[in-house]
Amino acid sequence: MDKDTIINQLKKRKPRILGEDTLRKSAVLLPLVETNNETHILFEKRAMHMRRQPGDICFPGGRIDKEDTNPAACAIRETTEELGIPATSITSLVPLDYLVFDMGRMIYPYVGIINHPEEIIPNKEEVGEVFTVPLEFLLNTEPEIHKIHLQVIPDEKFPLDLIIGGENYQWQMRQIDELFYQYEGKVIWGLTAKILHHFITLIR
């Protein structure tokens, strides 16, 4: 294959995220609601009997199914299932920046308005509690930042003899900033805090 054929063939394709087909894709909704004539952000506390992350605070959302026409459809579907509201209650959906992680996850966050929040009936199978935080509080509150240090540990069958340095190879240490927001005894951290901080930064 000559070089011109290679270039012409590559010109026909649209660049994607390398390995995108293997990523576990999810979508979440950052819900805006009106409470006492103020804009609030709605959060869920995961049910304590959930297998993954019981009791953690999160936004409505979940894995993208084959039936979902796009990530936005997933965010709406998951929100309706978890909060017991019709899709017509969710309006003005706007995408935020999506997140890709080395652990094989890709998350599509959206902001939207939930009308008539008084009609919410949480799904007890997934949601232990629903609460809101005033947007004004979040706009005026900086999150606490704490670091997590990630260590590289090669598998026992890793071919160290094939890389320069072998057992003494200088693996790069990584740090992750974890953000923490606290409001009336509730702790918002992890991916939820990252998405929240991104949203707050955009609207400031």
UniProtKB/TrEMBL annotation:
Keywords, comma-separated and alphabetical: Hydrolase, Magnesium, Manganese, Metal-binding
Cofactor(s) in the UniProt record: Mg(2+); Mn(2+)
Pfam families assigned: NUDIX (PF00293)
Gene3D superfamilies found in the cross-reference section: Nucleoside Triphosphate Pyrophosphohydrolase (3.90.79.10)
InterPro entries from the UniProt entry: CoAse, NUDIX_hydrolase-like_dom_sf, NUDIX_hydrolase_dom
Signal peptide: none
Molecular function in Gene Ontology: coenzyme A diphosphatase activity; metal ion binding
UniProt name for this protein: CoA pyrophosphatase
